[in-house]
């Protein structure tokens, strides 16, 4: 399996406030990897630093073999990393189709790029709602739109921060089904979510953060066999 993302010794934070103290993690092509940890442990900051939204103070991020940690967020997005941000941040005054089309520009060297039609096949609900304004959608539909919009950039890596936060249980299951379909499609995914049991069923490997440091890494079988880890690092 080839390495898609390599993060080594990453440090950073906000101004003089250091949040990350040497994060190491690796994501291989086609894998689903999680970032776990209680609130405030540095998961979002790790993602923001990988995405170039926060400038690292040390360490390296390599994507598809090239260093990206000195590049702008825009450059990194164009290299093929897309984020479904916490809170979704869709354009509420644009229609579903306009939200999707606004992001449809970059093929990222793909032979078989995402199109509106492919997005609608993946998310039939978005086709039904294609003329509705983003602000008229339910929370689950908004999340599908945020995922669809990210896919329209033809990412090599899709990152979801709080994939199912604030959604009703049945809607959460719909989002997991969508993500499983994307996984089967071969997409590489990093996901943050609170539902550990679902993540164990969905992801290959997991990284647990505590106070800006990696305290455990392992696969789903290992995490599932060590419920003490859940109590120590994940329970609230
Ligand atoms: N914009 C900011 N300015 C200053 N400090 C921040 C900012 N955003 C987050 N922090 C601090 O950085 C630390 C890590 O926050 P981060 O959001 O990365 O955690 P998290 O693990 O993603 O948790 P959560 O689930 O609450 O988002 C926290 O102490 C938080 O208060």
Order of strands across the widest beta sheet?
6-7-8-3-9-10
Tell me the β content.
25-35%
Structural class: alpha/beta
Give the CA-CA distance, first to last residue.
Answer: 35 Å
Residue windows where pLDDT falls under 50 for at least 5 positions: none
CA-based gyration radius: 17 Å
CATH topology of one domain: Rossmann fold
Largest sheet: number of strands, sense, barrel closure: 6 strands, mixed
CATH class of one domain: Alpha Beta
Tally of alpha and pi helices: 10
Which CATH architecture of one domain is right?
3-Layer(aba) Sandwich
Q: What's the name of the CATH homologous superfamily of one domain? A: P-loop containing nucleotide triphosphate hydrolases
Order of helices and strands: EEEHEEHEHHHHEHEHEEHH
Query: Quick one: how many beta strands?
Result: 10
| Principal-axes shape call | globular
pLDDT averaged over residues: 93
Molecules bound to protein: adenosine-5'-triphosphate
Report the helical percentage: 25-40%
Pfam family, one: ABC_tran
Keywords: Amino-acid transport, ATP-binding, Cell membrane, Membrane, Nucleotide-binding, Transport
GO molecular function: ATP binding
Protein name: ABC transporter ATP-binding protein
Report on this model:
Keywords: Amino-acid transport, ATP-binding, Cell membrane, Membrane, Nucleotide-binding, Transport. Belongs to the ABC transporter superfamily. InterPro entries: AAA+_ATPase, ABC_transporter-like_ATP-bd, ABC_transporter-like_CS, BCAA_Transport_ATP-bd_LivF, P-loop_NTPase. The chain has 236 residues and is α/β, with parallel strands linked by helices. It has a domain at 1-79 and 196-236: P-loop containing nucleotide triphosphate hydrolases (Rossmann fold), CATH 3.40.50.300. Helices cover 35% and strands 26% of the residues. It is built from ten helices and ten strands. The chain has helices spanning 43-50, 73-79, 96-101, 116-122, 124-128, 139-151, 169-184, 196-202, 220-224, 227-234; strands at residues 3-14, 17-28, 32-36, 58-63, 66-67, 81-84, 157-160, 188-191, 205-210, 213-219. A six-stranded mixed sheet has the order 6-7-8-3-9-10. Strands 2-1-4-5 form a four-stranded antiparallel sheet, covered by helices on one side. β9 (205-210) and β10 form a beta hairpin. α6 runs parallel beside α7 (169-184). The longest helix has 16 residues, at 169-184. The chain starts with a strand and ends with a helix. The mean pLDDT is 93. The chain binds adenosine-5'-triphosphate. Adenosine-5'-triphosphate is lined by residues 14, 17, 19, 37, 39-45.
